[in-house]
Amino acid sequence: MQGSFIWYELMSADTAAATAFYGAVVGWEAKPQGEPHGDYTIFSVPGFEMGVAGMMAINPDMACSGARPGWIGYIAANDVDATVAEIVATGGRLLKGPEDIPGGIGRFAVVNDPHGAVFCLFRPNMPEGPLPASAAPGSQGTFGWRELYAGNREADFAFYSRLFGWEKSLAVDMGDMGIYQCFDLKGQGLGGMMTATPDMGPPTWNYYINVDGIEAAAARVAAAGGKVLHGPQEVPGGSFILNCLDREGALFSLASMTR
User: Fold this and answer.
1) Which of 19, 17, 37 is nearest to 28 (CA)?
2) CATH fold of 143-256, please?
């Protein structure tokens, strides 16, 4: 499990609007959790109990501390505290935690890499018995790719590789935009990274949600009040992508095997 992406979380200042937006665009159902989890919502693919992502409301205190709408990914860590110590020792920074999630969910920490891209570490407490049914990988509403717009691609790959055992796979030369480096974990494709160009803003992670048909999805983004930044574009492997902003300006992306 170490080094795999196991959860995704949206920080939202308008959870009702975000629920409506992602329901319209990718078809998620929303399940508010209530205490002891506060104003937290689980998104799931219709027909499946297992969640694919969560949403946390940005309260006034969080907003005053600089929290803004956006997505964050959780990377599995067998020992959260030890991984935090290694991150800090190699140029990253601890932003929150480590601490236990109420209700016995697990232990987490919020950190950033040496160039400022934020992510979470998570060690879940696995329940007894089988897990709830989940949607098949690649189906609409599941996450399928992760992308780092890095401060420095080579330096940041070395940082993550030391922590999580990621390995380089396909490298794509994008001309003036540099090299796009795909990476695997134990032979399974996880994502890609590139050095961020000046117009991309600060280093950040971006997450791709699978959809059935990219052009119809682009129309749903616009109709729901979001914005398509780039695409549809065909990428190596034959899939099609969109880079988008939701109604609150949070970056996310969509991917489909069909136009």
Assistant:
1) 19
2) 2,3-Dihydroxybiphenyl 1,2-Dioxygenase; domain 1 (3.10.180)
- CB 204 within 8 Å of CB 251: yes
| pLDDT per position as a tens digit, 53-81 | 999 999 888 888 888 999 999 999 999 99
Listed residue (191, 136, 141) closest to 5, CA to CA = 191
Beta strand spans in 49-197 (E): 51-57, 70-76, 93-101, 106-112, 118-124, 143-150, 167-173, 179-185, 188-195
β-pair type (5-12, 51-57) = parallel
What is the pLDDT, as a whole number, of residue 236?
Answer: 85
Amino acid identity of 149?
Y
Q: CA angle, corner 57, sides to 64 and 31, nearest 5?
A: 175
Measured on CA atoms in the order 208, 213, 219, 220, is the torsion positive or negative? Answer: negative
Distances (CA, A) of 75 to 69, 84, 132, 166: 20, 12, 21, 12
Provide the sign of the torsion angle of the four alpha carbons 138, 53, 195, 251, taken in this order.
positive
Alpha carbon distances (Å) from 24 to 10, 18, 69:
16, 10, 18
Q: In angstroms, how far is CA 174 from the centroid of its own chain?
A: 23
| Superfamily of domain 5-124, CATH level 4 | 2,3-Dihydroxybiphenyl 1,2-Dioxygenase, domain 1 (3.10.180.10)
Determine the residue type at 252.
F
Sheet holding 93-101, edge to edge: 29-32, 40-44, 51-57, 5-12, 70-76, 118-124, 106-112, 93-101
pLDDT digits (tens, 9 = 90+) for 205-233: 999 999 999 999 999 999 999 999 999 99
